[in-house]
Structure formats: C-alpha cells, structure tokens
Specification:
By secondary structure, the protein is mainly α. It has one domain. The protein contains four helices and five strands; from the N terminus they run E-E-E-E-E-H-H-H-H. It has a three-stranded antiparallel beta sheet, covered by helices on one side. Strands 3-4 form a two-stranded antiparallel sheet. A hairpin with a 4-residue loop joins strand 1 and strand 2. The longest helix is centred in the C-terminal third of the chain and has 25 residues. It is globular, with a radius of gyration of 14 Å.
C-alpha cells in the first residue's frame, strides 16, 4: 500500500508465473519488497505488483488510480523498471513485470489488428 507521508510502498508476497522462456512456463516465488521512490512510481509499482498474478490491472482501474490510459501506464511502468529504484524489487518480480508488459503489448496489437478487418 502506498504511504504518502513517507513515499513508501509496502506489498505482500505472492506466487506468480514467470514469463515464458523458450515456450516453457516456470513457477517461481516472487516477492514485491518495500520500495522507496518519488512521485507516482511507488503507487504504480504497488499496483503492478498487486495485479501481477492477474495479467496486470484493467484499464478502468488504471484510469481511476492514475488518470492515464493503459498504454501510458505500461510505458511509465517500463520506464520505472529501467530505473535504479526498481532494483529493490526481486529479479523474479522485475522479469515477471517485463514479461507482462510484452504480453499486454501483444494483446493490444492483436486487438488493434482486428479493428481494421
């Protein structure tokens, strides 16, 4: 949960699937740890970790929480994961979040390709 008073995020452990590597899925224990960063980053990381087991937050949840589109949220999350501040997350969580971003991008690409047909 995001604490505005000291700009921290505290989340609880959970199990999530790692992204597919060479067509194989592996299960791993991933944990989102306490992360200290500035601005929206802590809240975005908290939401990303909370929704990781479910394929990411739905677009309406993103809009309500952050006032941004799913595409912008994904871009922002990608930027956060490149920052040093995300190094507080376990490597498994960072890998899973990056994999999820790829899956969401592919899902958007597939749905956009059907719009023109």
């Amino acid at each position: 949960m995001f604490n505005h008073a000291d700009n921290t995020v505290t989340t609880t452990p959970y199990t999530a699937s790692s992204p597919k590597l060479n067509g194989k899925s592996s299960r791993s224990q991933v944990e989102c740890r306490r992360v200290i960063v500035e601005g929206l980053d802590p809240a975005i990381l908290e939401v990303a970790c909370r929704w990781l087991p479910y394929g990411g937050p739905p677009s309406d949840e993103i809009w309500i929480d952050f006032g941004m589109t799913e595409l912008r949220y994904d871009q922002h999350l990608r930027e956060i994961l490149e920052k040093v501040a995300s190094r507080h997350l376990s490597p498994d969580v960072r890998i899973a979040l990056r994999g999820q971003l790829v899956e969401r991008r592919e899902r958007r690409r597939r749905s956009n390709s059907f719009v023109g047909h």
